[in-house]
Amino acid sequence: MPPHPTEHPNWPRLIPDAEQPWQTLDRTELNGPPRRLVRDTVRLHGGQEGEYVYRPRGPRAVFVLPITPAGEAVMIREYRYPLGAFVSEVVAGGVEAGEDLGHAAARELLEEVGGVAAEWLALPGFYPQPSISGVVFYPFMAFGVVLQAAHNEESELIERSVLALPEVYRQLDAGEIFDGPSSLVLFHARRELEARGLL
Amino acid sequence: MPPHPTEHPNWPRLIPDAEQPWQTLDRTELNGPPRRLVRDTVRLHGGQEGEYVYRPRGPRAVFVLPITPAGEAVMIREYRYPLGAFVSEVVAGGVEAGEDLGHAAARELLEEVGGVAAEWLALPGFYPQPSISGVVFYPFMAFGVVLQAAHNEESELIERSVLALPEVYRQLDAGEIFDGPSSLVLFHARRELEARGLL
C-alpha cells in the first residue's frame, strides 16, 4: 500500500445537524443494501405530513485524480447503465463496510487503472445529490502514479486513457466531461496542479 | 417572464449512446414517478447476468446562480432531509413534465428567492451520479437579478442570503460549500464572472 492519504479539513463537517426540523414518523424499505432506498412518512416543519423517497446516509464513495510522474492525468471512460452511455470520469468507487477512506482510494486506483501512487492529497468532500441521497463523496489527488495492468470487476466496462493535463482542462472548460463529480474533482485539483507547475 | 435562456452546446450531447453493451432482461418497479426507481435484470457485456437498482433517465433539474445588479450572488441554505442538514446551494429545482428548461429556471428563481433576471447564460450540463441515476442537471447564470418576496413550497425550508462574490468563491475554494452540483455550477461560472469584472 502507498503512503496513507490525509483527510481534508471539511470531511469531519459532512455530518447531520444537531437539530432536525422534520420528524420521521414511519419508514418503508424499498431496497436493501448496498443500494438501500426508503420511503419515509415525515412530519414537516409546518406540522403537515409528507412522503420522502431517498437513499439514507451511510454509503460513501472515493474519487481519485491520478497524475503520472510525467505530469499526465489518468482518465477512464466507463459504461454507465443508468445513462446508457460511456462517460468520461476520474477513478471512483464505493467504500466497503468499515473500510478506511484512504485504503479505498488506493484500492480503487489499483483496481480501475492498475495505478500505485507515491503521494496523496485530499480534496474537499461533497454531497452529490442532497435532494435524494445521503451519500458522501471523498476525493483525492494521487501523484507519481505508476500504471500496471488493471483489475476491473466483471461487472465494470472501463477504458483507461492517459491525457496531457492541458487537454483534460480544455475538455472540462468546454463542458465535454459530463460526469459532475469528476468535473468537480478536477476543478478543486486545478489550483494544486498550477502551484506545482503541472498546469 | 424574463428573456429566454439559450442552451449550452453540450446539452444536446447528454443522451444515450447509439449502441448498448448491456441488455435489459427484466424490470421491477420499486417506486413510481416523480422519483421512479427500478431494479433491472441485465445481461452484461461478458454474457453473465446481473441486477442493477437505479433511477432511470427522464427526470431533469435546473440550477441557477443568480447575480444581482450590484454584482452579488444569491445563495440559499436549504434543509435536506436525506442528509439531515441545512446545505448551502444555488437555486435549483426539478423540471416539470413537458416544461422548457429556460422556463423552469425562471420559475425556480422566482419561487425560491423571489428573483427576476434581466439576462441568462447557459452553462455545461452534467450527470450528478452516473452510477445510480439517469437524471441530468442543466445550469444557468442569471444576471441583473432583482429580488422580491420568495414563494417557497410548504415542503421546502429555505433561507436566502446575498453574498459578495469573493466571499462565495473563498467558501468554494475552502470546501465550505458541501453541495456538489452547486459547487460545480460556481466553478463553471467563475470564468464568466472574471471576464465581466465581477470577480
Describe the structure in your own words.
- Chain A is an alpha+beta fold and 199 residues long.
- The first copy, chain A, has two domains: 23-54; 57-195, Nucleoside Triphosphate Pyrophosphohydrolase (Alpha-Beta Complex), CATH 3.90.79.
- The first copy, chain A, has three helices and twelve strands, in the order βββββββαβββββαα.
- Chain A has helices spanning 101-113, 165-174, 180-195; strands at residues 23-31, 37-43, 49-54, 60-66, 72-80, 85-89, 91-94, 115-116, 119-122, 136-143, 146-147, 158-164.
- In chain A, the strands form four sheets. Chain A has a four-stranded mixed beta sheet with strand order 7-4-10-9, with helices on both faces. In chain A, strands 1-2-3 form a three-stranded antiparallel beta sheet, with no helix packed on it. Chain A has a three-stranded antiparallel beta sheet with strand order 6-5-12.
- In chain A, a hairpin with a 5-residue loop joins strand 1 and strand 2.
- The longest helix of chain A is centred in the C-terminal third of the chain and has 16 residues, at 180-195.
- Chain A is elongated.
- In chain A, 42% of the residues are buried.
- At the A-B interface, strand 2, strand 3, strand 5, strand 6 and helix 3 of A face strand 2, strand 3, strand 5, strand 6 and helix 3 of B.
